[in-house]
Amino acid sequence: MMNRRTLLVSATASAALAALGITPSALAASGIKLGDARPFSFDALIDQARTLAGKPYAAPAAPPPEVLDRIDYDAHGKIRFRPENALFADGPGQFPVTFFHLGTYFRTPVRMHVIDRSRDGKGNAREIVYEEGYFDMPADSPAHKLPRGSGFAGFRFQESRLGDQKAKDWKKNDWVAFLGASYFRAIGELYQYGLSARGIAIDVAEAGKAEEFPNFTHFYFETPEGKGDTVTVYALLDGPSITGAYKFVMQRGKAVVMDVECALFLRKDVARLGLAPLTSMYWFSESMKGTAVDWRPEVHDSDGLAIWNGAGEHIWRPLNNPPQTMASAFADDNPRGFGLLQRDRLFDHYQDGVNYERRPSLWVEPRDGWGAGAVQLVELRTDDEIHDNIVAMWVPKAPARAGNTYRLRYRLHWLADEPFPSPLARCVATRMGNGGQPGQPRPQGVRKFMVEFRGTPLEKLPFGVKPEAVLSASRGKFSYVFTEAVPNGVPGHWRAQFDLSADGKEPVDLRLFLRLGGKPLSETWLYQYHPFQSPTGYGA
User: Could you tell me the domains of the chain?
Assistant: First the structure.
């Protein structure tokens, strides 16, 4: 309900907006308070980021830490944004915006702004001023101690309509959220959140250096014009080593597609500069699981890294939960795309009500030539599903030096599958066990692999013809190598079996694809095997 104070503020704002040629209804900002109008353009935001990069880093002013400390997990969970205060809540056919509150785990204030266009097309931005009245919170909530204008932690776009009516009430369903540092995520076509994307990754798993987490410090929401399925948001990034300006054009259709444009400016040298980074969780799967580590068969948000490299090769790299932090680099020139995917979609493989079988796959599609560099995969050791332990990103070959500037355009596809699948057979499972043959003593230090492929090229094999398994390894010896149709009656479902013997504890990089008559029938399977990490127990 609008009180007298809000009414007075709105009346004053209306007069100011009218002078700019902006109608109050265009903002559709029910129940929120706005600051003064200031000119805005993406070019100006880029200039602001460039100017910031030439100055020493200054962390955003934060509310009293003793207050934030008291807004713990329990207290934060009791704070709810009131839907009647949502930005664009009154706009017909538009996506309302609601905001996250600050707390112990989200301490950096983020400034939110709404943009509207005057008759001459120029943009004017006004800050959304934080007030506790936007939220429902208990009378004894420590959040009452925060001063007016403290800022927000993040935001999300709510649904205003869905064709299949799986979410009938937009107040309870959102489709994209930006929260914490430069993290953001979206639901896929299966209506489920999962992995996250980031604006930037700085020195992930870089020896002797702490990872840096720059923040999106300001967001700017373009006021929608009538009905539509697309929203536009701008962001300012700031951190000790980097600044940047971002433009997100996000489309809510069958799933979510984001066109991202950014300009980045380095304050300092960066050892590992990760562009278009993705972050996910992989604990265990059919490939590797410690004895009785958990009652579920598999637990992961993503099960593999897919790459479509500049040479046109499709690569599938199953994820690992390694015994120690590992970083793998897949060198390339102008990649066509990469992504962290969830290929296993069977509920019986998870047996969990948190919907791991519905987690989205996320694909990065470069919109310009990215030049020379590598898709890098960082895998961290984890013993629980609450930790994100997987990072995939593009790292340019040229050193990231202070003063460098980067302009980047790419598209993010939040889908159930990759948007540009290979026409070749795809890897559908990676299994391991003890090497050797049944009924005979099992040789020490030998691991058996079963890699399954399925797809049209294998369906078309003439009766009695077997594909060839083309194998290579960074070290070790192969034995008992053969291929066979999986005896399940599914056309085009084949597996390659082999034993690997490798001394020592260093990881072994494996490569495999199926071939017939010199022509590939499958995508390329890559795997990093840790000889001292047994399928029956980590480190066994």
Answer: 1-272+400-414 (2.70.98.10), 277-398 (no CATH), 426-529 (2.60.40.10)
